[in-house]
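Possible regression after last week's pipeline update?

I re-ran a chain I had predicted before the update to compare outputs. Posting the input and the new output here so someone can diff against the archived version. Not blocking, just want to make sure nothing changed silently.
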Amino acid sequence: MSEAIMRGITLPKPRRLARKVPLPRRVPGSARRGVLEDGPAGGRLRAVLRLAGVILVTALAIVVLFLLTVFPRRFRAWAIQGFARVQCWLVGVRLQVVGKPAGGSTLYVSNHCSWLDIPVLMAQMDSRFVAKAELARWPIFGLFAQLGGTIFVGRKRAGSADDAHAMAESLRAGHGLVLFPEGTTSDGARVLPFRTTFFAAADHAARVQPVTIVYDRMGWLPTCRRDRPVFAWYGDMQPMTHLWRLLRRRGARATVVFHEPFAPELLPDREQLAAEAARIIATSAATLRQNRPAVPLPAPIVATPFRNLTDATAAGQGEPRYPIMRLAAA
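New output (post-update):
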């Protein structure tokens, strides 16, 4: 075009469209908002009905659990699991469970990204939870957690000895115990490093079972990084604001994977126990975030401890993986 102008050639003007009526601003049809977006009045109405249902069911659960305090714990366990499943249904979160909880005196170790993790796990097994002391002051839900046998731990070191004693007594009594070793909630896109202090109660457990929780569906479609803040509760998010955003959505799903349990004596110390549990959970969570099939992962594999290097060489095993185990057995 610039060459034509330099030569003095006049180009014809482009023809205008024959359309006299401008295009409509809205394409005709019955198209609705996307399933991943906040709905109009329907989304708000859905959230109001769900919130009213959650409050009513939680209040009813408090009354029932208070009446069941005079009965054996198994009756309360059935009631807690039933109410937790109803709460997940009211919130609009479907559950996909892979594997089975070991039961008994088991230390369940799970990743933590939302307050929703508690009812999701509570609906699957009879166990007590370890939660921060601030949860006990929440209206309605704090009282429900207390009646459910939750062990509240403080952030100060002054209460660490009492907290460890309460967790050990619960495990020795044959109750399952759920820990969130990250110490806080994450953004759902990763698993934070595990704190070894949470594994002090592992010595009193019959077994340790890693558990992975990933919220992998939103609007019946695989979730991505944009959707995870709908589930993840972290930073300075307000509980009611976060709950309101979640209640407006549809087609949500949480996948829970119970990995193979193992004896805590399989690993030499709390550092190795925390590292192996974090590895299993993080590997499984990454697989679920990539929309791959959920498969329980096996227990950590360690070398058989020998009394000395001569026995190890004779058995053809070479140097044991953990020298601490070899020295302890010597």
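Follow-up from reviewer: compared with the archived run. Strands lie at 93-98, 106-110, 127-132, 151-153, 176-179, 207-218, 221-222, 252-258. Marking as no regression found.
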